[in-house]
Each structure stands twice: as C-alpha cells, then as structure tokens.
Amino acid sequence: MGTYVVERRVLVHAPAERVHERVADFRQWVSWSPWEGLDPALDRVYSGPDAGVGSRYAWSGNRKAGRGSMQVTGASPDRIDVQLEFLKPFRSTAAVVFELAPTDAGTEVTWRMEGEQTGLMGVVGRVVPMDRLIGKDLERGLARLKAVSEETA
Questions:
Q1: pLDDT value of residue 130
Q2: Sign of the torsion formed by the C-alpha atoms of 130, 33, 7 and 3
Q3: What pLDDT band is residue 153 in, cutting at 50, 70 and 90?
Q4: CA distance linking residue 138 with residue 34, whole number of Å
C-alpha cells in the first residue's frame, strides 16, 4: 500500500479557454479521453450541470472499461479538479487535477492523478508503479486533447 502521483504535461497551441471547455465538460471527453474505445457499447450517464463544479459522469462497460464515476469538484480559469472513483474492475479513488498555464505559444496543460494504492492495486503497485500503469494513458489523452483543441485554432 502507498500513495502515488502520476503527472504529464503538453503544450497546446490554443487558448486556455478552449482547452478548459474540453476538460470541464465530460460530454467532450469522448473526443480526447485515452480510454475511449475500450468498450463501443459503453453506458454513459451525465448529471448535474453541463460543465464545471457539480457536473458528473458515470460509466459502466466491459471488463476493459470497468465501472466508475467522475465529478468536477473545483473549477477556475487555470485549474479543474475532478474526483475519480473506480468501482470495477477494482475499487479505487483518485484526485485528478488539470492545470492550464497560458504561455506565449498557447497553453501548457498538466494532468495529474493522485491516489492511494490499496487492496489488489497495493500489491500490484509494489511490482509495477502506477506511473508505468497509467502514464502512457495520460500521454495519449493529452496528445488527443492537444489535437482537438488545436483543430479550431
């Protein structure tokens, strides 16, 4: 058992507002989330406001997609906080933060996930660090977020 932090960043050649719209609205995650496509028949439920604090997204899918939910718990022009809860294939919670830092070239986006490894994941984490398990997913998601945010730049 122990805590983990996984963090990746990318420079997006688009204004922070455009990136913010794609992160703060869970309905837009289908265009960039690295986990899209794991289950073509994924069941999605959105609740609360369309975007920002209180918006919620729950999913249930096949073995690869699992089941869980996310809720935006904080939002400002330069930051979006999300509480993530996995129910299947294992129970886990994580604090997810997206930081948006305007630069001369666009927006530097940092995606950070922090949590505790308990139960089966605590055992797996001793052998395979979380950074190795989900780091590539965050990189793939940031690359997709960059692409969709720059499309209309």
A1: 73
A2: negative
A3: low
A4: 7
Q: Which fold has domain 2-150?
A: Alpha-D-Glucose-1,6-Bisphosphate; Chain A, domain 4 (3.30.530)
Percent of the chain, pLDDT > 70?
A: 90
Domain ranges of the chain: 2-150
Dump the DSSP string for 48-65. Answer: SSSSSTT-EEEEE-STTT
User: What residue has token string 């690869």?
Assistant: 64
Give the integer Cα–Cα distance in Å for 144 and 42: 20
Q: What's the one-letter identity of residue 4?
A: Y
Q: Give the alpha-carbon dihedral of 116, 122, 128, 130, to 10 degrees.
A: -10
- pLDDT single digits (tens) 84-122: 998 888 788 899 999 999 999 999 999 999 998 665 555
State pTM to two decimals.
0.90
Neighbours of 18 (CB within 10 A): 18
**How many Å apart are CA 140 and CA 114, to the nearest integer?**
18
